[in-house]
Design goal:
Layout: E1 37-42, E2 49-54, E3 57-62, H1 68-74, H2 77-81, E4 86-91, H3 95-103, E5 109-113, H4 114-122, E6 127-136, E7 140-144, E8 158-161, H5 166-177, E9 186-189, H6 192-200, E10 206-210, H7 213-219, E11 223-227, H8 228-233, E12 239-245, H9 246-251, H10 253-272, H11 274-285, H12 289-296, E13 299-300, H13 304-307, H14 316-330, H15 340-345, H16 350-355
Parallel strand pairs: 3-4, 3-5, 8-9, 8-10
Antiparallel strand pairs: 1-2, 5-12, 6-12, 6-13, 7-10, 7-11
Length: about 350
């Protein structure tokens, strides 16, 4: 497999009511010397108030993916829950980069795909999965030139994808299902924006990537050969996941609960009022509202109540992550798979249960 470093990665809207969580915390981002302070929030009944220890700053790694994380950011839902805390949003291109940031202690929360998270838990990166931003469907797909009609036609072709991403995992799964040796395909490592540039320049024959760059490639003549939704039907389900540094989560669980409550509000908006959600996400991504709505429709969003169940955070996700780790090991992407307990312990359904 050839590696070529190129690399994953308002219009007026309804006003959100204040979050009802009792929240606080402090994290790695307090390394600037800031001291934790008290913040006051309303309880679930809107009555009594309570002072809670909160950090001066929380650092969140996000990606340009049309899901609820962008709504939380654009609508400042976490800022409303933690009015005395600075929320520092940092844009990342891929889950691999998020893994590195957690390892170095630079972020408190982050978004990463299930494949890089499976690698992270295999390598004992100190974080926990506490949220499923989305179940990836048609939003992540393999788009190719018109002369390619099957997966077997990829032999000898140049296909770009962000290494260590869910797209990379899905590409390898598609090749594996079709009986194609991945070493016979020139797979190059590239970030989404660079992938679209390479496509436009005619330097690649296809790419496994996600929206909004997938949508750009499709608009520029690319045709979809297989989607992550189709691979999910074969058992290769992929997700965009919300992770939190373990030290932060253990010391400040109320902040984690507040973050999950904010994400759950965003999911409710996505499912109940997709037009408003599309306006918000379109503004954040600087794309047309209609395009945003189309891209949102390619993802599946699950409420906190359902995420807490056995089909997701309460059981099945840990099994999925272990399976992804075994696949990555088979492909030579990681040296070893951890014990099953590492994947179970790496998923915490508690905050979703509290929010639900």
């Amino acid at each position: 497999m050839t590696t070529n470093r190129l690399r994953r990665p308002l219009a007026a809207v309804a006003v959100f009511v204040a979050l009802t969580a009792l929240v606080a915390g402090c994290g790695s981002s307090d390394s600037d010397g800031g001291k934790a302070s008290d913040t006051t929030t309303k309880d679930a009944s809107g009555g009594a108030t309570k002072a809670i220890d909160a950090p001066d700053k929380i650092t969140i790694a996000y990606q340009a993916i049309p899901n609820g994380d962008l709504i939380v950011k654009q609508q400042k839902l976490l800022e409303k829950a933690l009015p005395d805390t600075k929320i520092d949003w940092k844009l990342f291109d891929s889950g691999g980069a998020v893994n590195e940031a957690v390892t170095s202690g630079d972020i408190d929360f982050g978004l990463a795909g299930s494949s890089p998270v499976s690698r992270g838990l295999s390598q004992a990166i100190p974080y926990k999965v506490v949220w499923i931003h989305d179940v990836i469907g048609d939003a992540e797909s393999l788009a190719v030139r018109s002369d390619i009609t099957s997966i077997k036609d990829l032999v000898g072709k140049t296909i770009a994808t962000p290494f260590a991403s869910t797209a990379h995992y899905s590409l390898l799964a598609a090749l594996n299902d079709a009986g194609v040796d991945p070493t016979k395909v020139n797979i190059i490592d590239s970030e989404p924006d660079d992938i679209y540039a390479a496509w436009s320049a005619g330097d690649i024959d296809g790419a496994y990537v996600w929206n909004p760059n997938l949508a750009k490639i499709k608009a520029d003549g690319g045709k979809v050969l297989i989607t992550s939704a189709e691979l999910a039907e074969k058992g290769d389900t992929t997700y965009d996941l919300g992770v939190v540094a373990t030290k932060f989560a253990d010391q400040y669980p109320d902040v984690v609960n507040a973050w999950v409550k904010a994400q759950d509000k965003a999911v409710k908006l996505l499912n109940d009022d997709p037009d408003t959600a599309a306006e918000i996400i379109g503004a954040e991504l600087e794309i047309d509202t209609k395009d945003a709505k189309d891209q949102i429709g390619d993802l599946i969003f699950v409420s906190a109540k359902d995420q807490a169940g056995t089909d997701y955070l309460g059981g099945a996700l840990a099994t999925n992550l272990e399976k992804a780790a075994k696949f990555n090991q088979e492909q030579g992407e990681i040296e070893k798979v951890a014990d099953a307990k590492a994947y179970v312990d790496g998923v915490d359904a508690g905050p979703a249960k509290a929010a639900g």
